[in-house]
Every structure is written in C-alpha cells, then in structure tokens.
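Progress narrative, work stream C.
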Amino acid sequence: MEYILRLIGYIIIIFFNGLMYFFLHSHFYFTVLCLLVLAPFCSVALNFWLRKNIEIDILAASAGDDYVRTGQEAYFYIEVMNNTFAPSLDAKIRLKISNDFIERETEETIAVPVRIRGVYRVELPLRAELPGIITVSALSVRIKDLVGFVPLTKKLDSKASVTILPQDGFRLNYDRNVIESGMLESEESTKRGNDFSDVQEIREYIPGDKLMSIHWKLSAKRDILMVKDRVSMSDRQLVLMLELIKDPIRLDGILTAAYTAVKTLCEEHTTVRLFYWSMGRYDYEDVRIDYIEELKNAFAKMYYEKLYLNPEEGASHMREVHPEIKSYMHITSDGSDAVITLRDNG
C-alpha cells in the first residue's frame, strides 16, 4: 500500500508540473518535468547496482576474553559496506538471534543508511540472560531506491557467535569431607581426551603405535616419525556429573553450580573429571579438568549437546556404563534450585 500511495503522489506531481509547463511554456518546468520522468528509471537502475555490490558483515566484539558471562552484555557489530556511488537512505537488515543450546530464536529488523563508497557500522548489544552460544545471523537486506518505488531484497549468510559462560565471581561453600568422599584413585583412562599418563621418553615409531602418541613437531624436524612413550600414573580425582535438563532456568542453576564447583576445586589444585550425558552419542562425555581454561573449553563444547527432560537421565546410566566409579558428585535441580549430592555408584 505504501508504494501505491507513493506512486500516486509522484504521478500527481508530474501532472501538475506538466500543467505548469503547458500554460507557462517555461524551460524551467520543462527541465523539471524531464527530471521527474527520468528519475524513477535512474533510481531503480542504481538500486539494482547497489544490491549486487552491497556487503553486510557481522562481527563479535572482543574485550580480551573469548567468553561472556550470564548477566553481562555481548556486543556485536553490523558493518554495511558499499563500494558504489549508489546510496540508499532506507535499508532494512533482517537478523536472526539464536541460542541453539537452549533452543531459543528471535528475529529482529534494523534500518540503516547505505553510504556512497563507505562503511556504516551499527553496534548491537545483547544481554546474555542464559548460558549457551549466542549467534547473530544476517538473513537478508531490503534496499529502497532513492525515489522509493522498487525495493530490492538480497539474501545474506554472514553471522557471528559469542559463547556465554555461567556467572563467575563467587565461591562455593562446601563440606571438604564430602568432597574427599567423592575422590577415587583412577588409572590411565582409555577415553579420548583423558590421558592420565606422563611422557617417559621419546623414541622412533614402531608399527602398531597409536597415532595420538606421535610427536608431530619433532617428527617434522627429524623427517622420521617419533612417538611419546608414556607411563601410566594414578591420581586422585573428583568425579562430577551434571544433568543437561531441557529447562532454561533450571539448567542455568545447574551449570552455574557446576562451573563454580569445578573452578573452586581447580583453584585448590584438585583434578576434576566432568561427566555429562550425550544424547547424540548415547554415551558419557568424560573431560579431565586441571585448569580454568580447560573448564571454559569444556563448557563451550558442552553447548553443542542436546538437552533432555528427565532430571536423572545422566545418573540413570552411570552404574551400567562406569561401574568402576564407586561414587561421584551429582548436580541436578529440584525444580527451583540446583542440588549437589554425593551418589554411591556401587
């Protein structure tokens, strides 16, 4: 309807300008009439040129840390780049803002000008209410020509993401005796990513050695495959298993409690084996955590998992899958708050 009214108004302007020229025979009105007739064609042609060359990019802001905490703001920047002489005073970018981990998605539309041979940047702050990975995707841009008769749409595929970790900054109060009860002596694990052994020596590759034991940098220097010969060692660890419940509010409490617990233990030089049930693999993810950076990476990887409804889903498989674990700390929710209990797996 907007474009029909605009067209009718434009025709009325041309009509009255034509009447003025008919009665006055003025060169001025003749020039204006010619410009009014040619302007829509030139405007539409420039708009087609602009649609072909316009580029939209989305960037995630970096403030010295790759992660943002819940309750803080994640900053994104939308850059509109135009290397032509065709401007637009009204371009609308359709954005999708999603958090696939908690299965939330919204769409927003922002209006921006398109400068002649220039870059226009828009700051988009988003408050991180829940953990996960916030992704801002540019779906399309709708460009109006200067006259406003023929809007054109161009599909886009630019996106940027920011990982949201649980809140930080407070300490976990716990009974040390309970923590000690959850410790276990564990030998070298055969699961990927949990190598509890030390390097004893480096030797030449022997057929049958594991590829994961190859020392690639040294092999490249010597031009021959070298492997790290390891010796098994045991260490005291705390097994902590958290539930990935399909309820954003309850899940936020579980993840906050788990993150705080592991962080506190890492600061006290306690090794943690973090378990969570993977619905996709139908198996446990088992991650050894000794340092805070490993904790951050573990949570970032966790955000690609599928959530489930049963608040005891992870605990229900522990005895069958890991009978060697005698006890573990279990983190779930009672409906309002996160609950941390010591579970007997015997």
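Work stream C, second folded protein:
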Amino acid sequence: MLRTHTCGQLTAHEAGTEVTLCGWVNSRRDHGKLIFIDLRDRWGLTQVTMIPRDLGDDYQKAKGLRSEFVLAVTGTVNKRPEGTVNPKMPTGEIEVIASQLEVLNPSLTPPFETNDDTEVTEEMRLKYRYLDLRRPKVFRNFLSRSRLYQVIRSFLNSRDFIECETPILTKSTPEGARDYLVPSRLNPGEFYALPQSPQLFKQIFMVSGVERYYQIAKCFRDEDLRADRQPEFTQLDLEMSFIDEEDIYGLFEALMAAIFKELKGIDLKTPFPRMSHAQAMERYQSDKPDLRKETNTEFAFLWVTEFPLFKYNDEEKRWESEHHPFTNVVPGDVSRLDGTDLNNIRSRAYDLVLNGTEIGSGSIRIHDQKLQEKIFSIIGIEKEEAQKRFGFLLEAFQYGAPPHGGFAFGIDRLLAIVAGQDSIREMIAFPKTQKAFCPLSSAPSPVDKKQLEELGIVVKKAK
C-alpha cells in the first residue's frame, strides 16, 4: 500500500509513529525555511511540515509544490506545539514532520479553488466536474447517496425482497414522455428504446413468482428539463404480489423512517397523512400540496390517493390513462367503465409527496386479462395494437398472474430535498444541463459517417 493512514485519521495517540500519507495539496504556506502544506484526501486534512534537515534532497521538491499536486509523504507524527492546535480539524492536534516526499503527479493551476467558499458558475462546475467533486460540500452529497443505497438494500433484503435487473435495451411503447431510441445495426430500420421505467418487466417478475422485487434502476425520458428533471435519472423500483395499498403505505413509511434516521438523524412521525386526489384539489388546488406550515415536521410527507383513472386529451379528442394503462380501478367504480361518463373514475394509484414535491408514485396493477383489454379499448388501443405493443405482457398474464402492485421513488429528488438543494443536478455525479448537454464530455455530439451508414441512417441538417 502506498499509504499507512488517511488524512483524516491521525491523532495525538499516534505521536512518534512513522506514517505515509497520500493525497492532494489543499494549501501551501512557505515560511522561509519551513514549508507547511495541508494534505487532503476524501477523509480529511493533515498538516505536513517540511524542514530542510529532515527532508534532505526532497526539500527542493517541496519548494515547487502547488495546489492540487498529488503527493506521497512519509514522516513522523508530532504533537503540535502549544498554541498551534487547530480545534476545527479532527487532526488539529498533530502534524507530520516529513522525511520523504514523492510527487505522484503535478497539476495545472485549477480554474477555481476546491474549497467550499469558492463562487463558481454552474457551467464551469459541470465542465470541470472532477474538480468540483473535490469540494467537501459537493462530495458530501455523494456520500449521502452511497449511504442511501446501503439503507435501501439493507431494509429491503431484510424483508425478503430480491434485487433484480431488467433490460436497458427494450421495446418502445410510447405512452407519456418520449422514449430515447437506439437504432439496431443487426435489425436495420428497427429500434430499441431506453426504459422510462422497468414497469412491464417488474410485472412479469410477479407472474414469474418472484413476489418481492426491487431494483435501483436507471431510467430515461426525452422530455423538457427542469430543476427536478434529468434525461437520465435513478429510481428505487419495487413490486410485490398478494398485497393491497396498505402494504405499500406501511412498507414505504418504514423505509423513509429508516432513511431519515440514517441520513438526518430524524425520527419521522408515521403513519403519514393521506388525502384523496379529489380532496387535495378541493383544498389546495394541487395534487402535491406542501403541508409544512400545517404540520410545523421540516419534512412533511403526504400520501395522495385515488387519482382519476383517465384524463381527456383535448388535442387528440380521446381519453388517456392518468398514470399508465396498467393501473387498477377502485372496485366501486368498475361498473362505470361501461358508461359514457369517464370523468372521476377513481384508480388505485397513489403518490408520495414531500414538501410539495412528488417524489414517488405507484399503483395496484390490473392482473385480470379482460379488465386490461377494456382499459386498452377505452384509451384507443385496440386488440391488434395492444398485441403489437404489449403482447409479451398480455401473454404472460394468461399463465396465472397474481394480484400485485408497486411503487417507485426518485432517488435524485429525495436526496435533493434531504440535502436542501434546489436542483437534482447537485445530487448526480455527472449531470446534464437544462438543454440535456454534458459540459464535461460534450455529449451529445456528431458521430462518424461510417457509423451512420452501418445503421442505415441519414441525418438531415437542422434548418
């Protein structure tokens, strides 16, 4: 190993010990014959003192050090002299008197300093994201993300869920947001789609007898961007068999309580309040009301239930699914599907709202073949079209589909709220701008003409 300790580890207990540290030069102070540097790694900072008599020939290297040089330093841990202890640093009681210095890599002068106080434009931050991630407050966001994943996996694994993967290259089933399409070289003129969610595959897992599935899933939507949207995002996706809404509510309330306890040290009050969609619209004129003022709980959760099953598309003069066409109907409203008035037919769909932001949604699914066909027919998907778009799911339903339901919540959105950030871009390692552009890699970008020819694609120039 190059190093024996991290830069956030050493205390007075290690005084007199020879150690080797590795990291980046956070700052450098030259006091004539004494050079001090703060050496930084992901765990913290350690002051390294460089004296000519101790460093010997390596002292000349010390005189050329600059910010962000990568070093390996060997030396002896020393208690700092009285009056020089820094109580703001975990390692503030000690310094390392260097006896050997190796420059592992020099650095250009960074376009901005990597400390929390630096004011930098978002465009500059994203272009040099690898430098931005060295800033402690930015890096903390990604520690939170890692801890969140650990809580999720530990919680669900202990409740007999199976972590599964679903395809990234899948079938385009346009409904709602636009798909990202991927041309197939081996099947000219045909396309895959990147998944907007693992919806169909997780329902097939239920037919398979998995019963309790989850996945931390990458999803893709080609839609106009806002502060809480990205073309690619991450969600916790979950499905269960032989359950009803109460099972979903109880499970996710317990999961949120575990998450907030780990990430914020907060004991959430459960159960969360509930409100039907009709009640929310009547009281707040919103299906995602912010209840913080009413509850005084920094984090106000709310279940919004019984969304309308359909919405009317005025442009196309037809009914559409409010959520998606696999959402079940409140039993008392099933008979209304045979009528002409489809307004306010209640679905078994539910959203979880936090501080006025929808962070997740789900529903009890349709598992009955005839009911599924009726819903398709109402929204203008006749048998032939349904078979073309969803045939593999419908066929699976003929082999003993259990009652099932699920939920998914946006990990990026939840983390942004927990961290007090206005944009989910702060919680994503390498995000896109609002024009779906990556300043770091310059994606999207033109591709070689030969690649297009192999795919049988001709690109028209933009007007």
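The mean pLDDT is 93. No further action is required on this item.
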